[in-house]
## 1
Amino acid sequence: MSLKILLQTFRPSFLILSFACVFLGFSTTVSTQTPINITAVLLILVGALSAHISVNTLNEYADYKSGLDFLTKKTAFSGGSGALVQQPKMATAVLVSGLVALTLTIIIGLFFIREYGAQILPIGIAGVLLIISYTPWLNRSPFLCLIAPGLGFGVLMVVGTHVLLAGSHSALPWLVSTIPFCLNNNLLLLNQYPDIDADKHIGRRTFPIAYGTHTSNWLYAGFMLLACVFMTLLIIAGQLPTLSTIALAPLPLSAYALLGAWKHDADIGQHPKYLAANVATAVLTPLLLGISIMWA
């Protein structure tokens, strides 16, 4: 039972997002015809997953300690896992798990710095700062909270993977990272709607709290259109292969999620099909984009 509770706080169903973003960075490296070190790929994936687990568990612990866990209405996509409400005695174990996962991420990063040099250091520092500051500080700044998931999953994971595997920076990973940047910002933005009242109660100031769901819906639409337009422009400019048009296929799911947001506002958590469509877009788009780049 204790292990099950601990695993719940990892939010395992969301960890595929890290795989998708690492895969996109891997695909841009393959496109350069750089020889791939499989051990490095596995270490990068472990580091990305441990970073993701660290964010999830530290957030779960903080939400339990602040009392937020007792205020949120749990859905499959928002409100946390609720595991610590069921088993409060596991709180310390969850905190330790988060710190261990963060330590593992740092150790892997230090290994890469020793082996390949300090060019990954700025990305690594930015990633660690995002992890440790997200719950206590970033959630109190509407704009920083808004772009934190896009920076972490979209930019740092994609670009960081490419730099570690290719040994140098190039334009392509930075360009394609803007797409998961937009979609991951939207992923968390919509998932914050059901928690508006509870988050406000403990002093959080997310974008929907600060500016309302109406403005947030327009922002969601802007990120969605930016991802679509930018990907299309990259294809037209020859930066991405024509086959990359397959990565546009999941974007109607994002439009469907937006329809649900317009229709239900903060009550969207009672209609999880819209939140599921939002998650599917954020995961499937970088996966299909990565496949198209590798195939071409």
## 2
Amino acid sequence: MRHGKKFNHLSRKTAHRKAMLANMACSLIEHKRINTTVAKAKALKRFVEPLVTKSKEDTTHNRRIVFSKLRQKDAVTELFREVAVKVGDRPGGYTRIIKLGNRLGDNADMAMIELVDYNELYNAGKPAKKKSTRRSRRGGAKAAAPAAATETKKEEE
């Protein structure tokens, strides 16, 4: 029985799979996007997203946890310095998988996996978010301005 065994083994032994995912994650953090097969991209997404979540809070403990998975000091440094700052307000979904078609040699499904906030093409059409404050139903600042305008009109007449 294989109850609760959803993880894709990618036709590799455990050590090979962990090393491959760590190397791919370091490449993704360094280059912000990489091309790979769809199966590896989906496995990498499940590997990287918790690490990016850990990087949002810069503590020694979180750095050690991430370093135990990535095994490259430069990648950990870049993840905690640049990537974490860029995705700080995002609640999840730090990566995007875009399918590219089939590879010429063996007809494998290819995909591009990228960090979402680093793609200028997708983010160009969206305006920057404005912080909106909640207003009361009684009017507050909005109702006061038209009332003042009507009082000045009455005084002119």
